[in-house]
Write a structure and sequence with these properties.
Number of strands: 12
Helix content: 25-40%
Number of helices: 7
Strand order of the largest sheet: 8-7-6-9-10-12-11
Distance between the termini: 42 Å
Oligomer: single chain
Length: 253
């Protein structure tokens, strides 16, 4: 695909066909956003952000969107698999602190000592607990379950190993914790659009969280893939700029 901008007109040249659209149209925004996402991946754009002092390797657009979901669901517990530097745990904890409700459980196969030390020294740590081990191991899942009381509202975020096989295992393991009306979110499905990019693998066109989510939902009629509604939108843009396509798996019963 080739993109040419001439004044206020965007020309998309693909397969010998040319499409023209106004630069301010929703269609042009979607096309330009896809190219921007690919450029950002190559340039490691998401590695330039932090939250309250801790690195957050997430697209800011996705962080704002998950904030909208957290406020709408108002969970008692947020479970996140994948800790890394702990910035997202601090982000979720700060949201819950502002709401005066809830706590965060972070699960990772390895929490590096310097990251653990920084998380435990953080102002938000009183709302965070850390569980170290394979997220789908029965004993690790049991440690998470032991921290959730009956009747509590639970939101689950999957951001650890992003292979299709592992995401399917996490969906099986953690979906029973999810409260009706809440979500289990399979992050980083953008992998399927990045084959051939730096730091990508040739099998990402099928071996990714998005494909795992689509396959898993087909076999579980109590869950659907449903993008959260815009709580506010006076613009013309109807699609999100996101690293998380097909990520929001909502429990409906």
């Amino acid at each position: 695909m080739k993109l040419v901008v001439e004044g206020d007109i965007v020309k998309v040249i693909e397969g010998g066909e040319v499409r023209e659209m106004g630069i301010g149209s929703a269609e042009a925004f979607e096309v330009i956003s896809k190219l921007w996402l690919r450029s950002g991946w190559d340039a490691k754009y998401v590695y330039g952000f932090s939250w309250m002092g801790r690195p957050v390797i997430q697209l800011p657009d996705d962080m704002i969107r998950i904030q909208e979901v957290v406020y709408a669901v108002k969970p008692d517990v947020i479970v996140e698999t994948g800790v890394a530097h702990g910035g997202s745990l601090v982000f979720y904890a700060s949201l819950l602190k502002a709401m005066e409700k809830g706590r965060v459980i972070g699960v990772d196969v390895e929490i590096r000592p310097h990251n653990r030390q920084a998380i435990e020294a953080h102002e938000m740590f009183s709302l965070i607990s850390l569980v170290e081990g394979d997220s789908v191991a029965p004993e690790i899942l049991g440690q998470v379950q032991d921290q959730i009381a009956p009747g509590e509202t639970v939101l689950v975020l999957l951001d650890s190993c992003h292979t299709k096989e592992h995401v399917l295992k996490e969906l099986d393991a953690y979906s029973p914790l999810v409260t009706p009306g809440s979500y289990i979110v399979a992050m980083d499905g953008i992998m399927k659009d990045l084959v051939g990019a730096p730091r990508s693998n040739t099998d990402w066109d099928w071996n990714n969280p998005s494909d795992a989510a689509l396959e898993w939902v087909e076999a579980h009629d109590d869950f659907i893939i449903e993008e959260p509604a815009f709580p506010f939108n006076e613009g013309d843009v109807k699609s999100r700029v996101t690293y998380w396509p097909n990520a929001f798996i909502k429990r409906v019963k």
